[in-house]
């Protein structure tokens, strides 16, 4: 039988409880995490949910399943679409996220930056500016060349504040 993916809102601080209880009932549950590091003298890895307050469940699309999942301990509700019916996630949505996850459901965003690439700064004081990648390292920051007041200035910006620019937009 064909199974669809649904988004489930979980109760506050009950993410793990909801996931375990849904799995006990035979549902396939996916809850991607984002591995970050806590700032400080000794950065430590920290797992945060990629979608806080939500998990994805793969199940058959029928009212018995919806009732069973909706009444699970830790679950607040199934996310609805039009009307009161649970919304089926678009085909390939969860699979595209899973493609970027490791075996522990840790999301690893693709970083296709190369030296000389043009990027757009998406937040911070340089928001909206286009810059050239000058330095790449294993850290969370990227060295950029920005044109400010007619002069090229070197700066470092966090990777999560950058977005790749297609060639046609870079000019």
From TrEMBL:
Cited CDD domains: KOW_NusG
Keywords: Transcription, Transcription antitermination, Transcription regulation
Classification via InterPro entries: NGN-like_dom, NGN_dom_sf, NusG-like, Translation_prot_SH3-like_sf
Domain annotation NusG-like N-terminal: ranges: 2-101
Domain of life: Bacteria
A Pfam short name: NusG
One GO BP: transcription antitermination
Gene Ontology CC entries for this record: cytosol
Signal peptide: none
Official protein name in the record: Transcriptional antiterminator RfaH
Origin species: Shimia haliotis
């Amino acid at each position: 039988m064909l199974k669809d993916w649904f988004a489930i809102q979980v109760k506050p601080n009950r993410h793990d409880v909801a996931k375990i209880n849904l799995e006990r009932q035979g549902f396939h549950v996916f809850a991607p995490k984002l591995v970050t590091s806590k700032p400080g003298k000794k950065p430590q890895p920290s797992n945060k949910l990629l979608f806080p307050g939500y998990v994805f469940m793969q199940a058959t699309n029928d009212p018995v399943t919806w009732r069973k999942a909706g009444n699970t301990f830790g679950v607040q509700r199934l996310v609805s679409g039009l009307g009161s019916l649970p919304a089926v996630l678009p085909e390939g949505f969860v699979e595209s996220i899973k493609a970027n996850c490791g075996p522990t459901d840790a999301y690893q965003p693709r970083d296709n930056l190369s030296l000389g690439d043009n990027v757009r700064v998406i937040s911070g004081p340089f928001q909206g500016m286009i810059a050239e990648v000058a330095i790449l390292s294993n850290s969370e920051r990227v060295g950029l060349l920005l044109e400010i007041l007619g002069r090229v200035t070197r700066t470092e910006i966090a990777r999560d504040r950058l977005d790749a620019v297609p060639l046609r937009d870079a000019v």
